[in-house]
Amino acid sequence: MAYHQPYDPFYVYQPHSHPHLLPPQLPQFADEPGAINTLFVSGLPNDVKAREIHNLFRRRHGFESCQLKYTGRGDQVVAFATFTSHRFAMAAMNELNGVKFDPQTGSILHIELARSNSRRKERPGSGPYVVIDNRNKELSKFQDDPSDEGDSDPDEAQELGNSESPKENDNAKSEADSEPDSKAPSANGHSEKASEGGSGARACSTLFIANLGPNCTEDELQQLLYRYPGFNILKIRARGGMPVAFADFEEIEQATDAMNELQGNLLSSSDRGGMHIEYARSKMRKQ
Q1: pLDDT mean over 240-264
Q2: What H or E segment, with its residue span, contains residue 199?
Q3: N or C: less crowded end of the chain, CB within 10 Å?
Q4: What is the pLDDT of residues 51-66, one digit of tens each?
């Protein structure tokens, strides 16, 4: 006959009363303000599919969404992958950077932190990934009338007519006011036309870039801007013998991030100090 311990009316069961029996807890680290949690992916084959990028990252801890983007330079394609935290993004980058993505083409992934965080807005039916194709935009850009003066604001024509000085700052001011179409609607359905040009302009998703060296090329600027989520298209113009550029983004916040980070940066072609970047007077028109 088995012997049972006498019943103790004061005994209280305490699970895991021994510290060494407690289940391990994963450390929790909060991201610092401004920490980057978006990855920039290049080295992809031209025929890559958005679902392949999604499948590449979806099993990584903290994966949120991805974006496949055809840059408009031939069939060049890049991608962005967004995570819930910086440490999850870093873990995925360390694991996948340098991996051979396509054995047939020999494509090897080059993954680094994006210049800023992606601010993807959820839209009905958008699915787990987004595809942005700028190839048609780039083609239509070259089919445009090379003179866009008809789209200028009236005060821009007056400003150019009164300017007899080749000073770059004066040219930059008039350029910032002129190029984008002031009648182009923004994504939310109303105009982003600024109340005035220059540094006093209202926030806009198109940036005006000046103080570029005479040898600055479109390719040099595009290579820089492609690393910023939301970048759509670049237009470069030569006025007074000096190049200026307009860079269009999907959202105002994305344009602001790029402007704040690139302001004053030197390009390899710079010969007169860093870039001067400000909001354009109005959003670049849709092609």
Answers
A1: 89
A2: none
A3: N
A4: 899 999 999 999 998 9
